[in-house]
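Team,

Forwarding the record for the chain on the shared tracking sheet. I've put the sequence and predicted structure together so nobody has to dig through attachments.
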Amino acid sequence: MAGATIDKIVSLCKRRGFLFQGSELYGGLQGTWDYGPMGVELKNNVKRIWWRSNVYERDDMEGLDAAILMNRLVLKYSGHEDTFSDPLVDCRKCKKRFRADQVDATEKCAEGGPHDFTEPRPFNLMFRTTVGPVATDDDIAYLRPETAQGIFVNFKNVLDSTNRKLPFGIAQIGKAYRNEITPKNFIFRVREFEQMEIEYFVKPGDDEQTHGQWIADRVAWYHRYGIRPENLRQHVQASDELAHYAKACTDLLYRFFPEREDEDKQYEEVEGIANRTDFDLTCHTKGGALRFADGREVPNEHAVMKQTYFDDAAKVHLTPYVIEPSGGVDRITLAFLMDAYEEQTLEGGKQRTVLHLHPELAPVKVAVIPLARNKPEMVALAKQIKKDLQGTGQLRTMFDDSGNIGKCYARQDEIGTPFCVTVDHQSLEDNEVTIRDRDSMQQERVPVDRLKSYFFERLGL
């Protein structure tokens, strides 16, 4: 049995319609990817289970969908306009640009010999645009580099409209944009991506315990949906790794690069859970200030309201601390794909590739296959079964007559379909069909009128 590498996942994703290179027809655009028919279902399922777990299954969470374009002042007072940058170096010989902190010392220059790098300089990662028909400095805006700021500037709006009491959280799923110097490794590092973020507001003093609980909850979520414990690590950031405003941060690292010789380098961040203290609400409040790492302060002269919380018991206004679990949808989707991928050698040396996706993640729950596609009665029954199952609204079902039964099974294994229903000659006589389990490859006969209850029970719906 063999597991996944990113190269294997790239091949599978193109072949089975999960992901395609962005603008491939015109040579592509680096750092962009398009989700195909299977990919969009998988990605939507990732977002769906995340939202259900963190919003619907909790009593202390509200949702938000903030605008991608924001007033420039939001990113001024968050510090992004001045500090959201990576170190950039140029090679004087080949004229290519690299992130200084990710330069491979062994890489050879295309012009021969080692690279000849310039001194590092900061490169702001935000995509800059203008709002309205006139392109002046007064009309500058940015595509948001993260979804978090939309939550922070709406803290008071959500608090007042819901009458929430601390602790409570605000969850958001949305697009973000970063002009990465060197996007690479498929959807691991891209320029346009989607985030799933929570800002959880607590009273100062309750933050450390809450931070620990969120770490445990997020680890349990990954395990619940199929990530193996040995592929997920926790990295507690040391004091010299922390953002200047953070009290603590634990990164969840997934084994994205199993082919690397150094085991520690096999793991890269899939999600971060940070204790951001009161930094963000202090930045975005009337009379507050942005505080930089070097001690400089920029008083907030533009906010029109105070973003504080009134503690009824203590009769005081306070600025909540914030715990932030933040993960990228694309990286999380990639992790689920990699963990589910398996290459098997069956009896007789036959090769099989299968995605053991959790049923709630699988793009297709059931595939219905007529054994003979040239038999109208058999095809009609298969299509009726497909229609009935799909009509439940919970069983994404595919009618598949793309080849012989072996090829259909192989196709469904590679897209992670948990069950295949085969309509054969006997089905026309006894109204029973053969169900094949993806993981065990075991088969059993089930009456057509029992299919809905069978799948609801087996899939846990």
